[in-house]
Design goal:
The structure holds 2 protein chains of 2 kinds. Chain A is mostly beta strands. Chain A has no helices and 11 strands. The radius of gyration of chain B is 13 Å and the shape is globular. Chain B is 0% helix and 49% strand. Chains A and B meet through strand 4, strand 5, strand 9 and strand 10 of A and strand 4, strand 5 and strand 10 of B.
Chain lengths: 112, 115
């Protein structure tokens, strides 16, 4: 079945710098891709969902890249600020089911 | 935004006892999910539920697990009997019907400790 590997498990960057998190997946039938943010003690919050046909998606303060050839999904937080400190999770799903297969998470710390 | 609530936030229970985890999903959502996250490990899908039935389940959804949503109230995960390896944080989620493209809204999790 699908396996999702997320790197790095921990990341510490200075305020104003970029933070880059990557997930690789194995199933070529994967179609939907998600990034979630989880602040301490809070629920998972959807940052962005990406469909298989879209390669670059920009949100507020971040960019999501999908490379289908390499089966790689990445999240780039630009100009990180303290509010970005959280755990980030990628999740992947095939077209035909409702299951999310998760990466192991990245704990991001933004230093002043 | 829409919120999913989970009750209780923490539960400590002796091995072999029964536990019920409660989820109050977003009011107009019709798909419901449970996920399990062991400390330090990745979140794993357990089960999803629609129209009174389990639609998909993973191999983690053991025979001791059951889900239901009686009369549109809480969506519950029952474990009977519990085992030590059931210790984890359990996340409930809900979504509109229509496929995985619809966002799943997550609750804050219930931390279950089995002694």
């Amino acid at each position: 079945g699908e396996q999702v590997e997320q790197r790095p498990p921990h990341l510490s960057v200075r305020e104003g710098d970029s933070a880059f998190i990557t997930c690789t997946y194995t199933d070529p039938n994967s179609y939907y891709f998600f990034w979630y943010k989880q602040e301490p003690g809070a629920s998972l919050q959807l940052l962005m969902k990406v469909f298989s046909s879209t390669e670059i998606n920009e949100g507020q303060g971040f960019t999501v890249l999908l490379n289908k050839k390499d089966k790689r999904l990445s999240l780039n937080l630009t100009a990180a600020h303290p509010g970005d400190s959280a755990a980030y999770f990628c999740a992947v799903s095939a077209y035909s089911n409702y299951q999310l297969i998760w990466g192991s998470g990245t704990k991001l710390i933004i230093k002043p | 935004g829409p919120k999913v609530l989970q009750i209780p936030s923490h539960q400590i229970i002796d091995m072999g006892q029964m536990v019920t985890l409660n989820c109050d999903p977003v009011s107009n959502h019709l798909y419901f999910y449970w996920y399990k996250q062991i400390l330090g490990q990745q979140m794993e899908f357990l089960v999803n539920f629609y129209n009174g039935k389990v639609m998909e389940k993973s191999k983690l959804f053991k025979d001791q697990f059951s889900v239901e949503r009686p009369d549109g109230s809480y969506f519950t995960l029952k474990i009977q009997p519990t085992a030590l390896e059931d210790s984890a944080v359990y996340f409930c989620a809900s979504s509109l019907p229509g496929g995985i493209s619809y966002e799943q809204y997550f609750g804050p999790g219930t931390r279950l400790t089995v002694l």
